[in-house]
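Q: Structure for this?
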Amino acid sequence: MKCAEVRQFVRLYLDSELDAKNSFEVEQHLESCAECAGLFEAEKKFDVRLGRFLRRGDAMRALWENIEVQIAPARRGKLRALWPIALAASVVIAASAVFLAKSRSLDLANAVEECHSAYVHQLTAPEFNGPVPDKIAQQFGGQLDTAAFAYLPSQTTFNSSGARLCHVEGVPVALILGHCGKTPVSMIVFKKSELDHFPKTKRKLESGDPIACSRSGRYQFAARFVDDHVVCVIGDRPRPALEDLLRTVRRADG
Amino acid sequence: MDQEKQEARFLSLLRPIEADLENYSRRMVFEQGDCEDALQNAVLRAFRAFDRYHDDASFRAWMFKILTNEIFAINRKRGRVAQFEIAVEPDEIEEFASLDFVAEMSLSWETLADALDEELVAALQRLNDGERAVLLMRAIGDLRYREIGECLGIPLGSVMGNLSRARQKMRDAILRARRLRRAGVPRLWNEGGRPSL
């Protein structure tokens, strides 16, 4: 394909509407043409920026609660009555699963699983979109690694819902929450210098593995270095899909 | 029991897309009260019709269709009528080749944040209902062109035409924001006159 033809396909390609043959030819061209690759990258940035803007807003939790009560009033009543039993059973099951899995999983994978699990079960939610709000940054007196929040996958299958600050084993990390299709996926970013807290993962990444993978509970986990940061993704997705997603992570303001 | 199963299944399909439906409604309607009415009416309507939903269809697309109908009904009440320009052929869509313009888009995004948001809100409000629905279904709903066409009852060519125009208008808004800020923004072009990609 020539440049003019490839450029006609830019939106169809990025919207995943191009057939396999043409997509392949576009990709081949992009590998050898820096100018077209730059134009495609610019268009991706437009999508990311527009997506961030369009998804901004406070979650209407009360509305959804109200809607759910109207849909399933009896069920919610029963669930409320049974919640202590359900909670106890969940704790026993989760503790057994964690005990079995922890010995084999990477330490960082085990640590971030909690954050992701809380997101999946809607116990935690994004707090902001875009750059870190001044109010949060000021709480850390300029010590917060705001750059960690600028990393995003360029893959259009990841829809970011926003971000929040989180602590993993005492390490403050940027937690970027989103979905791939309908599946919740979390991205965790922190400074490389903090990797000492996770020696198993550090060994694996520093041994030359470009991507460290692991399973933690029901989730797949993958981590890699990007610039001077460690970027991890975790979710109930096939491992190759998470690895592909991780490879596209770039600093959006870089 | 069947009723409970039905409720549980509906909610399990609904929960992962709640945020997307919410954002779509918020950006289509602009007023909080109308936005919540549209969501509530649409979800309850979908639940009542859930026995007619088939597994082989996308629940996401089905919900977006029902919500869009509610939103258009509200907009009609407010005197805003959905507009579509139907006569667009797929091969006309390649107007996207205005790539000098696209290249300019790659300039430092984050320096523009505040002015940009104001411009984007204004630009979104200036889109007609059709353009806005198509843009949001793609950008928030992640729907395929075919699904968008089915939701809105318009041909594929019109989906592509509306989407292309909507994106172009949003880009114009970003450029306007850049011009507003240009005087105060550090040099954005490198020595060769090319954008810093």
